[in-house]
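Customer escalation, tier 2.

The customer says the design service returned an amino acid string that "doesn't look like it belongs to this structure." They asked us to rerun it and document both sides in this ticket. The original structure tokens are below, unchanged.
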């Protein structure tokens, strides 16, 4: 049995799933986990996206108000197509409103990049070998996911049951 500090191999993960022949496949799929982790550095946070959309909306509203002021000079100045510019500016403001409703303002818990990919790989391998997907609370699959995560070169997240139970303990 591996200690939590030992690095497991893809072979041990494949054996736990029930098919040692999966070792090369698991090793090859590990690059997808590493790619997810690498790409997460470039993904913008939800709060950054909301902030950018709010700033765009404020700027569009300010521009629209400015266009309304220019409208009073419309007869004196040779502006072309101001009506279309105002309409498109209103469309930008409406687009911002729609997207602010879609993108939640709740921060949520930051997810470890690559963990979902890791879990999908393990679940698919399990389903391929055993003929059905495991249940959501299957602790064997949880431990296999953690072992595959460590085989990919990442630090263990730990057992969620233990981590969640520790949160309930008052020191």
């Amino acid at each position: 049995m591996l200690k939590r500090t030992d690095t497991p191999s893809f072979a041990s993960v494949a054996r736990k799933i029930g098919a040692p022949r999966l070792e090369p496949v698991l090793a090859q799929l590990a690059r997808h986990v590493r790619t997810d982790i690498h790409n997460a550095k470039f993904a913008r946070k939800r709060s950054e996206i909301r902030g950018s959309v709010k700033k765009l909306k404020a700027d569009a509203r300010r521009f629209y108000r400015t266009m309304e002021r220019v409208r009073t000079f419309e007869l004196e100045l040779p502006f072309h197509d101001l009506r279309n510019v105002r309409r498109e500016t209103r469309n930008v403001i409406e687009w911002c409103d729609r997207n602010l409703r879609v993108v939640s303002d709740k921060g949520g818990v930051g997810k470890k990049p690559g963990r979902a990919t890791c879990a999908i790989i393990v679940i698919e391998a399990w389903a391929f070998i055993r003929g059905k997907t495991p249940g959501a609370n299957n602790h064997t699959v949880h431990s296999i996911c953690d072992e595959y995560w460590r085989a990919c070169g990442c630090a263990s997240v730990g057992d969620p049951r233990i981590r969640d139970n520790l949160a309930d303990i008052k020191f």
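Tier 2 assessment: The sequence is consistent with the input. Residues 10-42+113-168 form one domain. Residues 162-171 have pLDDT under 50 and may be disordered. Sent an explanation to the customer and offered a walkthrough call.
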